[in-house]
Design a protein that fits this description.
Length: 171
């Protein structure tokens, strides 16, 4: 799928529309050719953001993390951010779950940008990204993160910190 953001002027957020990632057809006499269905084509490949009079694509793999901002989402791409009109749930549903994970009601992270998961016995759990951003990890999403770590050959369930273990990060 593809997201197109329109209507952003003078730093205001644009609206995001999700579309299938199909090349435009100029020959209307021929019937459309259905795209090959593979795991990647079911998910959004890029955001298309309009800023002032420019429109440019942002490949999803360049997005470090996505932050909720009321009826908008803020794309964090390196040192820049782009505010677009979309809900977290619509964006989450269009992203590949093997590449992106929701870790908080206000945050979706790009798993390839994770440096470490910080799960102390007490206090705020978080995810540290390679750029130094610390993203909160809510308790509601903790089981999903633990399962993902175990599925990737990470620590066993018994070695993950719990309410009685000491404070230490999981890498």
């Amino acid at each position: 799928m593809e997201a197109i953001s329109v209507g952003a002027e003078d730093g205001a957020a644009g609206e995001v529309f999700f579309m299938n990632n199909l090349a435009p057809r100029f020959d209307t006499m021929d019937p459309p050719i259905p795209p090959a269905i593979d795991a990647q084509s079911r998910y959004m490949q890029r955001f298309v953001v309009k800023l002032d009079s420019r429109i440019f694509p942002i490949p999803v793999d360049q997005v470090d993390w996505i932050e909720a901002a009321a009826n908008y989402v803020r794309l964090h791409v390196g040192a820049t951010t782009h505010l677009v009109r979309a809900t977290m749930s619509s964006v989450e549903g269009s992203l590949d779950p093997r590449q992106f994970m929701r870790v908080h009601r206000n945050a979706i992270i790009n798993l390839s940008r994770v440096q470490e998961y910080h799960m102390p016995a007490r206090g705020s759990m978080s995810v540290l990204l390679r750029d130094g951003s610390r993203i909160p990890l809510s308790r509601g999403y903790q089981p999903t993160v633990r399962k993902m770590l175990q599925d990737q050959g990470g620590p066993s369930k018994n070695s993950l910190p719990n309410s009685t273990s000491s404070d230490h990060p999981i890498s």
